[in-house]
Structures are given as C-alpha cells and as structure tokens.
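User: Can you write out an input/output pair for a complex, sequences first and structure second?

Assistant: Here is one pair. Inputs:
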Amino acid sequence: MSLVLIVLPILAGAALFLVPRTDRTVSRATGCIVAAVTFLLPLIAGGDGSITARWLSRPFTASLHFAWDGISLWLVLLLALCTFCAVLATNMGQTRTMVALLLLLEGSMMGLFTARDILVFALFWDLMLLPPFFALIGWGEHRETAWRFLIYNFSGGLLLLLATAAFGVLYGSTDVIGGAGHALVGGWATWIFAGFAIAFAVKTPLFPLHTWMPATYADTPPPMVSVVSAVQSKAGLYGFLVIALPFMSAAMAQWRWIFIVVSLISLLYGAYIALVQTDSKRIVAYSSLSHLGLIMLAIFTQNTIAIEGALVYIVAHGLFSAALFLILGYVEQREDTRSLTRLGGLGKVNPMLAGALTIAALGALGLPGLAGFVGELVILTGVFGAGYFWPALIALIPIVIASAYMLRLLQDIINGPEVKDIPQRPDLTWIEGFAVAPLLAALVVLGVYPHAVTATVAALFGAHSL
Amino acid sequence: VITNPYTTQDWVAVAPLFIAGGVALIVLLADLLARRYANRYVSIGIGLAGLIAAGAYAAASYGQPPHNAFGGGFILGGFSIVLEEIIIVSAIFSLVLYGGIGREDRVAGATALMLWSTAGAMLMAGAANLMTIFLGLELLSLGLYCLCGLADRPTARESSLKYLILSSTASGFLLFGMAMLFGATGSVTLASLTSPAAASNPLYWMGGGLFLVGLAFKLSLVPFHVWSPDVYEGAPLPVTAYMSVVTKAATLAVFARFAYAAAAPGSSNALLIPFFIIAGISMIAGNLGMLAQTDMKRLLAYSGIAQIGYIVAALAGGTPLGVRYAIYYLVAYMFMNLGAFAVVALLSTDKEEGSRIVSFHGLAQRRPVLAAAMTLFLLALAGFPPTAGFLGKILILSTNVNAGFPWLAGLLIAGTAISLYAYFKIIRLMYDRHAPPQASAAARAPLAYAGVAICAAFILVMTFYPYTPSNVLPLVK
C-alpha cells in the first residue's frame, strides 16, 4: 500500500507534462486529488502499509522496503497536507509545470519518509533535490542560487551515500529503519555517524552549513518553498531520529557537545538575522534556521521528553512555515514586493489575508494554544530535565526574540501606514483562503491535543508519555 | 604427419571474431555491387546483421565452464563473453549513429573498419597471453586510426594523427613491458606470471610497470589522458561514441585479467597500487577538466576519464565482487554514454554543430522528449538516482570500503561532487526558459531514437534489477 504514496504522485506528476503548458484547471485538480488520496490513504487503510522486495543481496542486503508506521506517519501526513495546500495555492505562469514539480517532490519525499532501508532512503534523498532545482532554474531570480542549493545538498547526499555504503558493509544490511536492530559497533561507527550527520545538518540546515538556505527560500516560488521548508527541511531531522538515534547513539553522545553548541549558534544566529532582515521571505527562512536549531538541540540531548517535543515541533513548524510562505506568496503576488519597507497597511484593505498571516505568525512565535508553543515547551522541559541547564537557558533567548521578529513582520505588513504607490489588490479568494485554512486549523488542533503526536515517540522510545 | 593441435572448441571460442571480421569483407563486396542503390542502408544493414550474429553466437556459449583455447591464448568464459557482448552492443549503437549522420560515400568503409576494430576488441576481451593481447590491441587501434580521420574538418586529421602517434607510443611501452615480463618468467601466458620466482626478478617489476603504463595510456588515465579530448573532438561523432566505450572496455578486460590473475603473489599490491592511485587522480582531474568545456565531445571525453577511474577503482583489492561491480558499472556507463552521444547525434547536421554545448540551450522548449532523455543520461553520469549510475557508485563504494581502500571511496565522492556542476550546467541550459530561439537540426535517424529509448530504459531498469554475472571468475585458467 505504501508504494501508492510514492508511485501515484510521481506518475501523476510525470503525466502532467502531457497536459498543455498553459493549463491551470486540470493540473491543479489532479494535484489536489492526488495529494488528498495520499493524505487519506494511510488514515483509511490502517496498519503500516508495509511492502518489501529484495533489492541487493551482495555486498550487503538491501530491500525496497516501505512502511508508514511511527514517526513516518506524521511526516507522511504533513507532506500530503502541505502538498495539497501548495497545489491549491499555485496560481502563476506555468501553473502546470509547478504542480507537476510539486507532485514529483511529494512522491520522492514520500519515498524518503516511508523507506525502511537506508539505501532506499539515500536514493530518495538525492531524488528529492531535483524538483526544487528545476523550480530554481525555471523561476529563480539569481542563477547562482540553484547551484548553491544543488552543490551543498548533493555534496551532503554523497557523504550520505558513502556512509550508507560503509554502514551496509559493516552491518551486513541496510534494511534496518524502524526495526529492532542492535547498535552499530566498532571504531568506524563514529565516522559513519559523521557522514550521516553532515548530510543531515546540510539539509536541515545547521549553522555553519546553512548558507544555501536563505537564498533558496527567497528565490523559490511560494508553493514550492512552502513544501521545501515545511517538509524537506525535516528530512535531516527525521534521519537523526530513525537512523542515528537507534543505531549510532554512542557516536551521537560522543559528538553531542559539538552539535549542542552549533544548534545553539543556529538558534541565536537565525533569530538575530531574522530580526534585522527586511525581505519577508528571508525573515521566515532565518526563523526556520532558528527553530530547527531548537529541534536539533532536543534530538542531541537524547532525552525522551525532549524528543517528544521535537516531533511535535517538527509537525508544528511544518504547519506554520508552510502557511507563512504561502501567505507571503499571496502578499508578493498582490503587492509585487517582499520588502518590509515597501509594504504596509494590508490589514485595512485585505482583512482576510491579514487574519491568516496573523494566525500563522502567532503560531511561529509560540503563542499558547497553538502547536508551536507545545513543542517549544516540551523541548525545553526535556532539555532541562536531562540536566542541560545552560543550553535550555540559552535556547530560551531566541524564543523571546521570535516574538520580536514575528511581530515586526506583522506590524510592517498589516499595520503601519498604507503604501500609496502600490495599487490596491483584492482580498483572498476563497480558493486561496481554503489553501491555508487546513494548515492553520491543524495548528490549533495540535496545540490543543498534542498527545496524538507525543504518543508515537513514547511508543517508540519507551518511557512515559505526556 | 602434421597433427592439428587445435580442437573444434578452440575455433568455436573465436568464431564471433571471425564472424565480425568476415562480415566486414562482405560489406565491402556489397558496396561494390550496390554502390548505385541505397548504399547506406546496405552497408549498415549487413554490418548490423553480422554484429548481431556474432553476439548471438558468443551468447550461446555463456554458462559453460571456461575453456582455454589455443593453448591459453584466448579464454572463453563468463568474463570474456560479457565483455564481448558489451563491445558488440556498443558497436551496434555506433553503427546505427553512423548510419544516421555519416557521409554516404564513406559508410561502407567506416562499417568495415568498425567491424574489424570490434573483432580486435573482442580478441582483447578473451586474450590471456601477451601475444593475443597485443594482436587484439593493434587490430582495434589500426581501424580506429582511419576511423578518426573520416570527417571533413581539419580537426579530423589532427585527431587521426594524434591518435596514431600517441597510441603507437603507448603500444611501444606495452610491448617493451611484455618483452621484460617474458624475460622474467620465460612465458607469454598471463597465468604463468604468477610464479613466485618472478616477484624477485627486477625485470618483472620493470616489465609490469611499463605494461601498466601502456594500459593507462589506452584507458586515458591521468597523467596519460591528454590525447583523449583532442582525439574525441576531431573524430566523427559515432566514432567518438565507439571509442569511448569499446577501447576502454577492451583495455579494462586486459587490466582485470592482469590484476586478478597474473600479478605475482605478494607483488600484486605493490605493482597495482600506483595504478589505483592514478585511477583516483583521474576521478578528480577528469571531472575538473569537464568544468571548462564548451564542446560535448570534449566534455564527454573528460567525463570518460573520470568514469574509467571509478571502474578501475572497483577492481582495487581484487575481490571477487569487485570485478562483477566493475562490469555492472561498465554496462551502466555504456548505456549512459551511448545514450548521451545518441542525443548529440540527433541534434547534429553533417557538420556536427550539435556537439557544441550552446546547441542544447533551450532544448526543452524545442524537443522536450529529447531533453528529458538527455537529462536522464546526465543524471546517470553524475550518479543521481534513480539511475544505474547511482547504484553502480554505491556498489563501487562498498567494495572499496570492504577491500580496505576507503581513500578511493573518498576520492570517488570528491570527484562526483566536482562533476556535478559540469553535468547540471547542461541540464540548466536545456531547461532555460529565456533561451534565444535557434533552429534544430532535422533528425533523420529513427534507429537512433530507438537507441535513446533503449539506453534510457536500461539505465532505469538496471537500478532496480542489479543483475551482475556470477560466473566471471576465474579470469585465467
């Protein structure tokens, strides 16, 4: 069953290239149906949708093995939801091509999140880089952005490949994700972990490997960037959770302080830059750097509560960053600018748009009642409870700064004096509204009932649930 | 009474060579008779039929126990048959391309030369003594010297002459090395080089070194690679496609046999490690060289230098799996390289402007299917999934880690990272929406389209069905 999640979007995406270039309706309808099917399938089908076929038997065993249990399920749902919203929000020149790329991206990332084999994981890891690359060469404003994105991420992917090969040779099999395998032992384990960790850190991204990210997020069209920032950036975190944590926890502990320090630097640095940027997309990009640093910190404390919080925050960040990028896309489409200095007073003319932006931004700054707050709170509790007093304290600072830059974003776009030389544009159409509504609704639901997510981690890693 | 020392089985082993070589004569004869009619199709048709017959005949012996034909001169076994098939398939592709874009009055000659070269390459695939190795190599090269000059551009003459001079030099090294190896061991068969006494003889070391230098020349490994971009650029496009696979596959067969079976015990590492080091350097230097190219043929020449480095790396450590993965990657390389050349050929007119990189600018607007196919081939060359290039690299990396050559794996990763820009530069050009309109050459080669489709299909299928032949060892009996 889980194969449907991968094959259906990829086939549909490829088939869309047969539709005329100027088409809008057919491609968006197809995209929405496919995304909806991939969202509902795991919920309706139940079970773990496991499917497996032997791929390699030498030099190590590898299987085309897919399933959607545990942590995967949350990322699968998040991905399907974000794709649905992004397809619905796509309204641009070359809509057909964008929707096709979104579906290809969904299929490749479904493969990544449902893979139960590290080699399959590595295959989809590289594959998911292609749709954003094509989006960047098609729509990007700067030629070098596409190169930076590709070269950074694919170099990470190559390290992942080398680490996977070494893992397979030492372990005898790569068909291990989600299984009850023993930990990797031997002197090589720490270097294999380093290979995985660098690849994951580039993708997340983590300071100082983040320099591809702001430009990529700013240059990629809103529908694509909403999925990339909401879900693709979670691939590295997911990798830490399902590959590094179960199999290389000793090596993780060995590298712990290095990662805790760079996570804290990412947290502080991202928040500080977000405070001074004037490009609205870049503000959200840097805030992502900061937020994902917090998740990384949680993972590296290797504490169950912190990891429960991390998973909640992974989903929450996906929801609000997808919503933010989509809404900022609407703003850019109307006002033709992303610069905070040129925007202002949208609250008066576009109240619906302003309302949606407010909810998303409040989610990002961690307003109690929304999912972001729960994630931050649980992470900090876990980090503190695990005995990391100073890291927890330092991590608190950027959470406060987050309020400052998110409110600044709101204030400069929604309030403030109306900018006169920009022509007035209509408020959200019902389709545009409907495209962000599910994300915002999910943000509220998870904020009130986070237990659904935390139970997953508790089931996987033992210990008590919240 | 003169008794015939050779058995029927010996002749069966080399029959595919004779088929290929004999059909070349028929091509020439048919050309005399059919010159006024559809000369192009007659020559290509006969040539293809001959190659297919040779391939089918060779395939029929697959699975039988290895046979030492002609007293150890030629070994018929899993390895030689697989290599022969690789060579034949590449020759078929190249002939198809030549039929599409070659000049009418040259088709017959080119077909015959290509068939003879193919016979030489097939001889190398099974050659197990120094004499047959040299015989095969010279037969392969002689045909290629002429083929390289078969174009109207001045660079064709440069290409031909350069290849003649440099390749002869390499043959000189090879021959001198062979003479010393013979002096050290008193035998020309590769199997007898394994005698422990040989390792203590300085002649063996010098001979082995010179022999490997000669092979490195033919494989165009750094620092013996400078001829290949120039020769590739000047030669007609189908000939370039042919050389990029057949010469390398045949030389690789010789190297594999030498490395796996013939190097004296104890000496093997010390003698071969420099070879693996230059393979590692080739991965870096070849990919670096690609970055600045503006001509597809030169770009693919540098790409080939690096790709051969990967394949040689698979043989490091002499593991039984290594040779199978080398074959896997060689087959993958054949399909991706020939596919890329076929796309270039489909964009070319007689003057071969299609090989300039600018002719790919905005290709996705003009020929979307062709652009998609080219993207797949470039992704495969770069080692991107879901292509055989990706899986091939994983297999090579794991043999390297397994055999204790992690540094080769590291160089492979570094080289691949460098190659990324060069391959994706073309992809970006093809999908550039702001490309100036330009006329596309009218393709008149339906077979070449079929070739592109076949290459693309194999690259995808091989990823998920990574079949490698299990009966390739032993390489020498």
